Amino acid sequence: MPMDPICKIKVPEDTPYFTEYGGKKYRFCSPECKRKFDHLEKSVIRLKRSIAEQDKISFGHLKRDIIKPGICTLCGACAASCESIAIEDEQPRLVGKCTACGVCYNQCPRTITTEEGLIGKIRNAYSARTAIPGLKGQDGAVVTSMLAYGLEEGLIDCAIVTVKSDEEPWKPVPVIAKTYDEVVEAAGSIYSHSMTIEPLMSAVKQGMRSIAFVGTSCNIDAVYKMQKSPYGFLHLFMRANILKMGLFCMDTFSYEGIREFVLNKGMRLEDIEAMKIRKGRMEMQTPEELKVFDLAELDPYRSSSCRYCTDLTAENADLSFGGVGTPRNWTTVLARSGLGYEIFNEAVDNGYIESRLLESNEMNNVLNLAKMKKIQLYSVSRRKKA
Ligand SMILES: Cc1cc2nc3c(=O)[nH]c(=O)nc-3n(C[C@H](O)[C@H](O)[C@H](O)COP(=O)(O)OP(=O)(O)OC[C@H]3O[C@@H](n4cnc5c(N)ncnc54)[C@H](O)[C@@H]3O)c2cc1C
Ligand code: SF4
Ligand code: SF4
Ligand code: SF4
């Protein structure tokens, strides 16, 4: 027996209340339900079409991300927006055909689907690379170029950056950099936690008044909280302006873990010239060759805090920088605050950086990775397969 799509009760085939729409016959228990359907369904179908043009998201996605992990609140929004979904045994279930229109997923209060929800507030997004001849960075060396501009123009007194330890290769050492050579030495990413707040405090205490701070999302949050919390170090921050330069961050690994991993692969940390995480793989460059490993192999060494982290793009920064979304050797730049926007564009205007606006397909790659991180809290193990 067919189901009334409005009140979800079974109705006879030959009910006098029906509507033919999109090649399908819908049957109702009463004229009231038919009227509601005629009024509402047309706009829902229009919405479904507009979403379907962008992306195919099926009920399976809602099941995987929200229902199965047990974070569905049983609000009923999905069932109310689609006749193919019914709440049965205290769970939304697919009871009809799914056309992967994405409405239920986008409607659900538990999914995060808006740009602001996924990457925070931004003013503009760019793809950029250094215009300083010979300068090399992790991606487009944009962070280092901005620091060079800030120091050379006298906009900043120093920068908090992270260099590799001389004694223990690839061990992160956070430092106060005051010269071009010192910021250039710090270029590149080290995939272990860096205790960046210590040199920041020290710089403030030494009397630095304008400081560029480079750090991962969690580092940026530490500064953000200090600036905001009445129980933090507000009195120190009254003495200095801090430009928060956030690095996109999906994972870090324990230093000892990376060392063990490298040794197990028959290599030595001191021989590795560069490490790069890209598209689910860890690339390690040695003088002889580029070794590429599935990131899942490093999972045992992943810092436990990163499993519970949902901020890919350093949402509390003035500017955020990452490799995802942009061609190799370019950096994705998100300008967030007015200060971040102005300084980045000044560095471009003064010939330190080459930049163009990020294209929508490139932004989608950033949003997809951000989404993966937002929902990882709910299903940690799935990232291994992604
Ligand atoms: C741990 C970590 C994980 C990352 N994960 C991702 C990711 O999943 N996806 C993505 O798109 N991008 C990620 N990034 C950002 C990316 O690797 C680049 O840092 C970013 O694209 C900027 O590139 P760049 O060439 O402009 O920077 P560069 O000019 O090379 O400057 C990099 C700056 O990063 C600082 N730095 C290096 N290591 C650390 C550290 N451990 N903690 C704090 N500061 C550090 C250096 O001091 C330097 O100033 C990650 C970065 C780090 C450090
Ligand atoms: S709203 Fe219905 S048709 Fe659209 S994705 Fe969800 S279950 Fe499928
Ligand atoms: S819309 Fe989301 S939270 Fe509400 S019932 Fe459906 S799956 Fe559950
Ligand atoms: S994943 Fe999150 S917690 Fe882990 S280092 Fe990156 S920003 Fe910090």
Automatic annotation (TrEMBL):
Domain 4Fe-4S ferredoxin-type, chain residue ranges per copy: 63-92, 97-117
Keyword Iron attached: yes
Pfam families in the record: FrhB_FdhB_C, FrhB_FdhB_N, YHS
Co-factor(s): FAD
Source species, domain of life: Archaea
Listed InterPro entries: 4Fe4S_Fe-S-bd (IPR017896), 4Fe4S_Fe_S_CS (IPR017900), Co_F420_Hydgase/DH_bsu_N (IPR007516), FRHB/FDHB/HCAR-like (IPR045220), FrhB_FdhB_C (IPR007525), TRASH_dom (IPR011017), YHS_dom (IPR007029)
Keywords of this entry: Iron, Iron-sulfur, Metal-binding, Oxidoreductase
A GO term for molecular function: oxidoreductase activity, acting on CH or CH2 groups, with an iron-sulfur protein as acceptor
PANTHER family xref list: 7-HYDROXYMETHYL CHLOROPHYLL A REDUCTASE, CHLOROPLASTIC, FORMATE DEHYDROGENASE SUBUNIT BETA
Protein name: NADP oxidoreductase
Organism (species): Methanolobus chelungpuianus
Taxonomy of the source species: Archaea, Methanobacteriati, Methanobacteriota, Stenosarchaea group, Methanomicrobia
